[in-house]
Structures are given as C-alpha cells and as structure tokens.
Amino acid sequence: MCNLYRMRRSSAEVAGLFRAAGVTATNSGEEIYPGAPGLVVIEHEGARALRSMTWGFPLPMKSKRTGLPIKPKPVNNIADLTSWMWRHIAPHPANRCLIPVTEFAEAEGQAGSKTRTWFSVSDEPIFAWAGLWRDSDEWGPVYSGLMTDANAAIAPVHDRMPVILRPDEHDAWLHGSIDDVIAFQRRVYPPERISMDRTRDPWIRKAAVNGPLI
Fold it and tell me: Does the residue 162 lie in any domain?
C-alpha cells in the first residue's frame, strides 16, 4: 500500500496544471501521511476546483479494553471497490477526484531498518493518482487513492501501486462509468514510464498513522 507521498509544487502550480480554480489555503506539508491534509482536484459546479482534504476515510474504531469508541483510523488506500466503504460512492462521478503527486514511497529492506524508495513518472513533474472523496462527520472532506497490481518497475519493492492517470485520462476518470473505473484499476501502467530512487533514508522519520487497506 502507499502510506507516503510527496507534493513538491505550490498549490498555484497544481491549479494551473490541472486547470483548476479556487486555490485554497492549506497546511499540508511536502510529505503527506495518512490522516494529514493534502490537495485534491474535484469537479464542482461544472468546473475543476482545488481543495484541501484529509488523506483517508475515517474507519470507526473501538477500544479492545473498554469497547468504547476511540479515534478513527484513516483508510488511505482503496483495494476492493466492492467493499462497503467504496461500493456506494465509486459509481458516482461526483465522488471522484485527482490526487496530485510528485513522488510516492514504499518501504524496502529488513524489519527495523527499512528505507524509503521513491517512485515518480519520468516525464511528468506532477502526476494524477485516481481517487475517491466524500464529506465525513469526523474530519470534513476526505479522500483515498485507488490501488492496483504493481507493474514490473515497482514489483521488486511492493506488490501494489497507485492507479496513475495520464493527462488525457483525467476527464475519463472524473466523468466515466463504473466500468471505466474498474478498467483503470485492472490495466497495467507502463513500467518504462516509472523512475525509481532508492535512498538510505529511514522509513520512519516521524509519528504517522498507517491506514488500513480496504
């Protein structure tokens, strides 16, 4: 699953590239973790709009000790579109979004000494990750990213990867049918378009909430 990605461009640059209006103030950082704010592009009143939302749909949790409700856990990746969390919203274009990304990371190495391996699209400084969003009672607007089987470039590090959209596919994702959504998840993204950067940076740099994959 993807539990860390970067957005290293300004909101104005993102808005210009995605032809989105309504640049919003955001306190999102350069590195985005589950449960933290990030920028997404949605369709609003017939036009694209840039919004700040929380990365991850809230999953209700209960204390194993007391049985009482505790802080929800962010579900930041989408594996199974038939799951109860997604099946009622995936067919509706109003719940689709584009997640702007410059790089995403996967952990690599032995337990306790994992490092960050970053992946990007070689010819796109900012690319779009296919996502779903909705309003939540807990955190306001939230979003999550659709996952698919890893291609040959990513498979040596992880068996899953984000569903990456080419620029000419943005409209099809935002307006397409549920069959189009399923087709995007099933297709193999060209491995030759993926660039990889293996680093010695430790995977865990700060306290971050790792969301479950549903």
Answer: yes
For residue 32, give the CATH number of its domain: 3.90.1680.10
Model confidence at 110: pLDDT above 70: yes
Task: List the one residue out of 41, 13, 9, 66 whose CA is nearest residue 171.
Answer: 41
H or E stretch at 69 = strand 69-75
By CB atoms closer than 10 A (0-12, 13-18, 19+), residue 28 is middle
Burial class (CB in 10 A: 0-12, 13-18, 19+), 47: exposed
Among 99, 100, 187, 87, which Cα is nearest to 145's? 99
Neighbours of 203 (CB within 10 A): 19
Total domains in the chain come to 1
Q: Which residue has the tokens 């589950």?
A: 34
Residues 6+ away with beta carbon under 8 Å from 169: 184
Mean pLDDT of the chain: 91
Has residue 212 been placed in a domain? no
Q: Distance between CA atoms of 212 and 30, rounded to whole angstroms? A: 22
62 is a domain residue? yes
**Does residue 39 fall inside a structural domain?**
yes
Contact 97, 108 (CB under 8 A): no
pTM of the complete model: 0.92
DSSP letter for 203, please: S
Position 24 pLDDT exceeds 80: no
Range of the domain at 160: 5-202
